[in-house]
Amino acid sequence: DGGTPILGYFVERRNTSSSRWYRVTPNLLTGTSYHSTDLVDGNKYEFRVVSENKVGQSQPSMPSTQVLAKDPWDKPSRPSELEITEISRRSCRLSWRPPTDDGGDSIVGYVIEYKIAGTFKWIRANDLEKVIDSSYKVSGLQEDFEYEFRVAAENRGGIG
Length: 160
Description:
Largest sheet: 5 strands, antiparallel
GO cellular component, one term: sarcomere
Distance between the termini: 51 Å
Keywords: Immunoglobulin domain
Protein name: Fibronectin type-III domain-containing protein
CATH topology of the largest domain: Immunoglobulin-like
InterPro entries: FN3_dom, FN3_sf, Ig-like_fold
CATH class of the largest domain: Mainly Beta
Radius of gyration: 26 Å
């Protein structure tokens, strides 16, 4: 501290693919921890700290070890054992088993999609409602068409 009390700290970071450091704290921090945001998933970063007292600012600290920006959870694996039951002319009921791997986070719902067999455009069946259970009635189907269905689980890591 050079004989004068430290007033606070600034945090700087750099993407390891660049040599340029950016100050990420616009204001002086009085604590000794900081939560950095706006990191790009998959990029590596280093951090360093500059302290300040009434005389001025210090030289930056040595850089931290490299940190890989990554969500603390992954996308869940796919549900299994998809079954189609209660088939009528305009609807059917789908049921499935939850994924074996939740990606480290709770499953918040399922995305159900269908398409006419032989086409490429998937249509979301539950666009207006969140499906939490492992069963869903798909309505609005057309008679005399063959359909394909798929179900994906979702958590904070994304849609599996």
